[in-house]
Amino acid sequence: INILGIETSCDDTGCAIINSNGKLLSEVCHSQNLMHLRNGGIIPDIAQDLHRTYIEPTVTKTLQDAKLTMEDIGAIAVTLKPGLPLSLVVGMKYAKHLGRRYNKPIIPIHHMQAHALVARMHHDIRFPFLVLLISGGHCLLAVVQDVDHFQLLGESMDSAPGEVFDKVARRMKLRNVPEYSQMCGGQAVETAASKATNPHMFKLPLPLSEYRDCNFSLNGLKTSVLFHLHKKEVEHKTVAHELIPEVNDLCAAMLMATTRHLVHRTQRAMEFCKENKLIPEERQQLVVSGGVACNNYIFSALQMLCNETCYDIYRPYPKLCTDNGVMIAWNGLEKWNKGLDITTDFSSLDIEASSPLGESLIEQVR
Ligand code: ATP
Ligand code: FE
Asked: Which domain of life is it from (predicted)?
């Protein structure tokens, strides 16, 4: 069986085909990133128009690259939640159209579950494992007991890390620096931070340091960063991107503070898993996924934590950390193999803007 995966939850029109051995046959991703960078953020109507324009050519090209036709496809996996409704609906409608026309079942996919599970595509990761999902819209810790059994330990109470990096990068006008002009906010912040000469110049607080749960909060950090930036602008009577050394130092301070928070929470999650025997001690695995998992500084800090706690650490290849059709096809295959959620009753399928990841244990983590 070959699984066709379709992803349109945000601003990428992604499509991929995976065979029954989990081998990737082809993949096409049309990114709207540059368009949205120009607009200073995603405008849902524009994202929808672009998905509508690109969905058909993207799927067609994916089939062509794999030298397959729709007849060779066994099932269509498509992201139905969570995400921007105007974006999600384009993928859902196209999947239903293909399903009806070629008489193929649909496998609905949860975008965040797909971010977590795709790590299993290239690594020998077994259930259960701990996952830290850090992306543009989410920040959460969960135990993945099985393909369809996620236990949520903590989540973001305000902004997600990718969102904070994107906002701060925009406010710093990092895109005016030619080297960063094609980068997303997170990459620009990471690169600027690597050039810092005095990263300890700015003192930023550790969020929620006195709480023993696994929730995240980054708004306080973001506000402090913007405050320091404003102070420097006033002091030097200039605008952000003219303040290169300070901006680099501030990016480094923000990255370090964010990392400390992520590590602190992950450590607490490991402790909770041990106390409650959620993960067997002979095989402890941490998966880091979502776009922010591309960040090498954050990943190395988590690696150090894992060294201390005897966890093995994994992350998908960078291309698979951000949004793509491959993770949707992969999740489709994992569900297919276990006979989960495969349906031909399309009227029962609908999109959901927000959706819990699974069973919530948040109240128990104290
Ligand atoms: P969600 O999955 O929560 O719906 P999303 O799909 O928009 O959100 P992803 O595609 O997983 O998010 O990731 C995009 C985010 O990853 C962006 O906010 C981007 O700034 C961030 N990002 C990408 N590379 C890096 C990096 N090297 N360092 C930090 N952040 C990064
Ligand atoms: Fe995503």
From this structure: Eukaryota
Secondary structure string (H, E, C) spanning 72-92: HCCEEEEEEECCCHHHHHHHH
**145 exposed, middle or buried (CB, 10 Å; 0-12, 13-18, 19+)?**
middle
CA 20 to chain centre: 25
Cα of 187 to ligand 1 centre, how many Å?
Answer: 9
Mutate to test the pocket of ligand 1, among 135, 287, 288, 357 (most ligand atoms within 8 A of CB): 135
List pLDDT tens digits, range 3-13: 999 999 999 99
Which among 270, 286, 266, 289 has a CA at the least distance from the CA of 278? 270
Token pair recorded at residue 33: 């990133």
Q: State in Å: Cα 305 to ligand 2 middle.
A: 25
Predicted structure pTM score: 0.95
Strand order across the beta sheet in which 139-146 lies: 312-314, 285-289, 129-134, 139-146, 149-155, 359-360
Does the interface predicted TM-score (ipTM) exceed 0.95?
yes
